[in-house]
Amino acid sequence: MKISTKGRYALRMLLDLAMYGADGFVALKDIAERQNISKKYLEQIVPLLNKSNMLKTNRGYQGGYMLSKSPSEYTVGEILRITEGSLCPVACLQYSPNDCPRAGECITLPVWEGLYKAITDYLDGITLQDIIDNSSQAPDFVI
After folding, report:
1. H or E, element range at 110
2. Which of 22, 111, 115, 143 is 20 to 30 Å from 122 at the Cα level?
3. Which tens digit of pLDDT belongs to each residue from 42-75?
4. Taking the chain, what is the end-to-end CA distance rounded to the nearest angstrom?
5. CA torsion, points 78, 130, 45, 40, in degrees to nearest 10?
6. Short-list 60, 73, 77, CA closest to 17
């Protein structure tokens, strides 16, 4: 499994909104500039996040994007499933119940099930807030 640029950039965009969106909507151009990501590329990611109700949108002057929930309610796993699709390491685990004709006799299936469980447990256990709390790059708002 390899996480694409789309998944990595969506995570960075949502982290940026979590860090800089406390006072209101954030312009896409500002996110693009801070994250060194093309604004056009972010424009391709926004519809995926909007469709999944991850963002609030405001058009016009003072427009932009903000998180629709608290950063502690977004998991990395959720974000990657929206942008990447399934996180399954092998195709036979994409559907439940497993419809592979060899599932009943496959001696490697437990290996792939264990890997999938490790991936999902790990990624679903990390929130945007966790990443910010563990980052030395979190903005300092001390006045």
Report:
1. helix 109-124
2. 22
3. 999 999 999 999 999 988 787 899 999 999 999 9
4. 44
5. -170
6. 73
